[in-house]
Amino acid sequence: MKKFVVTLTVGAFALTVCLGSALARPPYAPLVGEHYKDSEAIVAKTKAADKCNLCHDPESKSKKDRNEYGKALSKHFGEDAFKKVKDDKEALAKALAEGLKATEADKHSSGKTFGEVIKAGKLPGDK
Length: 127
Prior knowledge:
With 127 residues, this protein is mainly α. 56% of the residues lie in helices and 0% in strands. It is built from 7 helices and no strands. The relative contact order is 0.13.
C-alpha cells in the first residue's frame, strides 16, 4: 500500500511539472471582434488562425511579447484590470471594451491614432 501511495504521489507531481500551469485567460478574439464589428479587417482577423497576432508579436515564440497595439492595450487593460474581472464574463467584456476604446486614442507608429488606423480598415498592430 505504501508503494502505491508513493507511486501515485510521484506520478501526480510529475504530471503537474510536465503539464505546467493551465492558461487562465479567456479567448479575447471574439470579444474584440464584437467590439469592432464594423471593422471588416479586425472581424476577419479575430476569426483567422493567427488571431492572437492582433495584439501579439507574430515573430516571437512568447505570447508575452506584444506588438505596438498590444502594448498600448495593456496600458488600459493590463494584468490588474484582468484580475478584477476574470471571474465575471460580463464585467470582463465591459472592462476589455473600455480598454479597447481608450487604446483607440493612443498613437500608432504612423502618427495616426489606433482608432484612425482601424477606421481606415487596417489592423492596428501592423506597421
